[in-house]
Every structure is written in C-alpha cells, then in structure tokens.
Specification:
Layout (H helix, E strand, L loop, with lengths): L8 H5 L3 H4 L4 H35 L7 H23 L4 H14 L1 H6 L1 H20 L2 H7 L2 H14 L5 H22 L11 H26 L6 H31 L7 H21 L4 H23 L5 H18 L4 H8 L2 H4 L14 H7 L5 H6 L5
Helix pairs in contact: 3-13, 3-14, 4-12, 4-13, 7-11, 7-12, 8-14, 9-11, 10-15, 14-15
Length: 394
C-alpha cells in the first residue's frame, strides 16, 4: 500500500520538488541522497521486521492470539489514521470534513463500491500471510513471497497490456527457479521445525497470497486510473471495507473461539507491535517510497531477505545450507535485475537528440524528464499515480 508523504503541496508537486526547489544545487543533491538512504533503511527495516515479528509472536509458547483479530485491528488503526490526516488537510474544520466524506463516500458511491473487491482481496491476503508465516521459517517465507513480483508482472501484462523487456522475463524465470529451489530445500527437511507447523499449508498460503497481491494491485491501479480521490481517502475507504470484511472473516473462521475467549485474547506487547507495524508500516513506506526508485526498492528487498535470514539464524535456529543459499541468491539477483530501468540508452539519446536543437533561441531549456525508474515503480504501487497528479481538494 502507498500513500502521500505530506498533507498538502508536497504531494501536489511530485517527489522532491517543494522540499528542494529553493536550495542550492549541491545542498539539494546532498538532501536527496540523504532521503534516498533514509528510504532504503525504512524499506529494509519494515520489510524484514513485519515478517520476523509475526513469526516471533506465532511461535511463542503459551496462549496464541487470533490472527483474524489482528487483521481487523490493523484495518481500524489504518482507517483512523487516514481520517485524522484528512481532518488535518481540512485544517481542522469538522464541517468541511463531513461534507467532503459525504460527497466522496456516499454521493459517489459507485467509486466507493469499486474498492470492495481489492479490499476483500487485501483482507484475505493479510490473513493468508499469518497462515504462511506460522507454518514457514521467516527466511523461507521472505524468499517465497517475492513471487508477488511474478504475479504482479503477469497481471500487468494481461490486464493493463504492459510489455516487459527480455531482461525482465529472464529475471522472472530466474525468480521462479530460485523460489522452487528454496521450496525443494524446505520440503526436504533442511531445518528442524516444530511439530505443529505444516510446510504444505504454508506454501499454499504464500502462493495464494502472492496471487491475491498481484491481482489486487493491478486491479486497484486499473479502477483508479483517472480518479480524483486522494490517497488518504482511498486508504480510508479500503479501511472501512477491510474492517467490515475482516469482521465477517473473523466470525466465519474463529467466531465461537473469539466470543468465548475475547477479542484481545493472547495480546501481548509483541502482538501489539505486529498490529502497529501492519497498520502504520505500509503508510510509512508510502511516505518514503517516492524518494526511492526501482533500483533502490529492489536493493531494499534484497537486503531485507538477507536481514531476515540472519535474524532467523539468531532468533529461530534457522539453518542455511548450500541449497537454500543458492535459491535465495537467485531470487536476490532476479529482484535486482527486474528492478533495472528500461531504455536507459534511448532516454540519453532522446535527451541529446533533435528536440534539444529545436529549442528556440533565448528560451530556457525544458525541465528534465523524470527518470524511467520512477515510471516503472508506479506499476508496483497503485496509489502512487495519484501522488503525482493530485493537486488540491483532498
């Protein structure tokens, strides 16, 4: 999930324009580098910490919390956060906020209802992640979950008529091969596991989660093309549907047990940490992701795999054998190759080609074209196109 980094003009003008426009070139360059490093750190920590924390809480001895309640609480907190941000955008005017929400949510109910499908899929995906992480080592899940890159790419080709380069197709094949090797190692019993864990169920859950993630992201981008709604509004609408659908899933899967033991049964500070990470982690990543191009995001994913593996060795006694190392290495390489920008040579040729010579004398040169890597990044983050086109009124 992605979101705007600021409540007003920063989001309206695109990445870095307002914050560095009035600075000297050297200062702007240094500030941009700092923001990229901060973005890298946030992406790595959030990617790895959520998986490790879920794994930790699901393997602790004693009472185990209900995953369905954690999904509902994350949606509630996320929706409330977006509501507060919208309230701040309206400069604390409650009447304006109510009128805005009435118009955006109720009057334009067709746009609101369109979000029911991705919200259902995201709620299902969040529950599946708990099932997968409960039955797979954190490092194995982190590697296997990169299949979402493959599913997102395939759905983009089928539903948005996007084209992939030969290098991207090759990297997807490499990705699939690496995941298959890791799963073969897992099936062969590479690491000792608790008796209550089922690797088959974990694999099925993570594959279903990758499929739902890919479809929901592309479908979300497709239905929101041309929409004027802000990112925080869309997150709020998703939170409303997500809370309702999460409660339905809770009632269907664990309703009797929750009614008997209580909604917050088994909640500890560590569990609350997982809930807060789920609720705010995606929004925090959305704030920094506009400073991160595709290469940086790919590098962050690779680092998070390494970090998850190292932490799993330390925390859970995970054993890294040559087969796992080979598969994880192929996945890391595939993620990096897939994130490389396309057409770099063409972009340079265009920048120095006839268009520059046709500039009328005495006129300032046109502003530089944004890097291609940012364009490619939007296909992975369905909210971000609104980040670049939204002007006011959110």
């Amino acid at each position: 999930m992605a979101a705007v980094g600021a409540a007003g003009s920063t989001a309206a003008t695109g990445p870095g324009v307002v914050s560095v426009g009035a600075l000297e070139p050297g200062t702007a360059s240094a500030a941009h580098r700092r923001l990229k490093y901060i973005s890298l750190a946030v992406l790595v920590v959030q990617n790895a910490s959520l998986i490790l924390s879920i794994r930790y809480t699901r393997t602790l001895p004693g009472d185990r919390f209900f995953a369905t309640t954690a999904v509902v609480m994350a949606e509630v907190l996320k929706g409330l956060t977006c509501l507060l941000l919208l309230f701040a955008q309206k400069r604390g005017n409650l009447k304006h906020l109510v009128l805005f929400l009435h118009e955006a949510v109720l009057v334009q109910y067709v746009d609101t209802l369109k979000l029911a499908v991705p919200s259902l899929i995201y709620t299902l995906q969040n529950n599946l992640q708990y099932v997968a992480i409960s039955n797979l080592p954190a490092a194995t899940f982190q590697v296997t979950y990169q299949l979402k890159i493959l599913t997102t790419a395939l759905f983009s080709v089928l539903m948005l008529n996007r084209s992939l380069t030969r290098l991207q197709w090759a990297s997807l094949l490499l990705l699939f091969t690496g995941v298959a090797i890791v799963q073969a190692q897992q099936a062969g019993g590479g690491s000792p596991r608790p008796l209550d864990q089922n690797p088959g169920a974990g694999l099925a859950a993570v594959v279903a989660s990758c499929l739902s993630s890919g479809f929901a992201g592309v479908y979300f981008e497709k239905i929101l093309k041309g929409s004027s709604g802000s990112v925080w509004l869309r997150n709020l609408q998703l939170g409303l549907f997500g809370t309702a659908l999460g409660l339905v899933g809770l009632w269907w899967a664990e309703g009797t047990a929750v009614a008997h033991r209580g909604f917050f049964f088994g909640y500890t500070p560590a569990v609350w940490g997982v809930v807060l990470n789920q609720a705010f982690g995606g929004l925090l990543v959305a704030v920094v992701v506009k400073y991160a191009d595709n290469i940086l995001k790919g590098f962050a994913t690779s680092l998070s795999i390494v970090l998850s593996t190292v932490a799993s060795i330390r925390l859970f006694g995970f054993h890294v054998d040559p087969i796992f190392a080979l598969g994880a290495g192929l996945v890391i390489g595939a993620v990096y190759l897939y994130s490389l920008p396309r057409g770099a040579a063409k972009a340079s040729a265009t920048a120095s080609g006839p268009a520059m010579h046709q500039q009328p004398p005495g006129q300032p040169p046109p502003p530089p074209t944004p890097p291609a890597s940012h364009r490619g990044d939007l296909s992975q983050e369905p909210f971000l196109p609104k980040l670049l086109t939204k002007v006011k009124g959110s």
